[in-house]
Amino acid sequence: MRPSVEGLIQRMRSCAPEWREAATGFETSPLAASIRERLPDDYVSLIDELGPGEGFVGREYLRLYRLEELSAANQAYEILTYLPHHLLIGSDGGGNAILLNTKQAGAPVEKIPFIPLDPDFGETLGENFSSFLDSLLSHAENADHLHPRSPNPETFGLEIHEKHPVVLGGDPEDTSNKIFLRPSVHAEAVVYFNRLVRNIRERS
After folding, report:
1. Three-class SS of residue 107?
2. Which of 16, 42, 84, 161 has the fewest CB atoms nearer than 10 Å to its CB?
3. pLDDT per position as a tens digit, 124-133
4. Which pLDDT score is estimated for 32?
5. Quick check: is 199 in a domain?
6. Is residue 44 part of a domain?
7. What is the pLDDT of residues 79-103, one digit of tens each?
8. Coil/strand/helix, residue 113
9. What pLDDT shows up at residue 31?
């Protein structure tokens, strides 16, 4: 049985007490009809009631964009070019996009690296948005020995970006290879490197 919106919101307030919104830099505008018709009801209800924002849910970090930012965010990251059946709704703050696969029933939630935006590198996190959030909360609630983590005020609202992406040979363990970018600026870097990856693949 799908968990109720009310129950999920109560659990979020318990497991993510510091959930709050940060400026992303994406433009806001009314949802385009082409996007609105692809959004599942449980996702829209949860965003309306809980509010967009970011923070740790247990030990996992989650960022969810405002509904009014979805059109600009999807355009900024060129999601339609690489993942025409997906909608970007947020990230894990650590280099991975959180998306809805709107081609499949229920719109499963998937995590796919921003670089490359390739479903072969992704994983399914939930058969729908409610089950995704339920799973995230269940892991947090079952970790009795873990206290909710607090976002670092110096990096709150920022995306981790690898200056030399792993897919192009970068070292994922090298801290000097990582920088923090505002999401709207991060999108520019992602677009640059995804175009580079595509060009390399086309030449191979």
Report:
1. coil
2. 84
3. 999 999 999 9
4. 85
5. no
6. yes
7. 999 999 999 999 999 999 999 999 9
8. strand
9. 87
Report how many domains make up the chain.
Answer: 1
Q: Per-residue pLDDT tens for 155-164?
A: 999 999 999 9
d(CA 100, CA 188): 22
Find the domain containing 76 and state its range: 5-156
Cα–Cα dist 35/148, whole Å: 34
User: Hey, is 147 helix, strand or coil?
Assistant: coil
CA distances (Å), origin 62, targets 81, 151, 170, 181, 200: 24, 11, 24, 16, 31
End-to-end CA distance of the chain: 47
Q: Phi and psi for 99 in degrees, rounded to 5? A: -135, 160
CATH code, domain carrying 49: 3.40.1580.10
Residues in the chain: 204
Q: Which amino acid is at 74?
A: N
In a domain, 50, yes or no: yes
pTM of the model: 0.95
Strand, coil or helix: what is 161?
A: strand
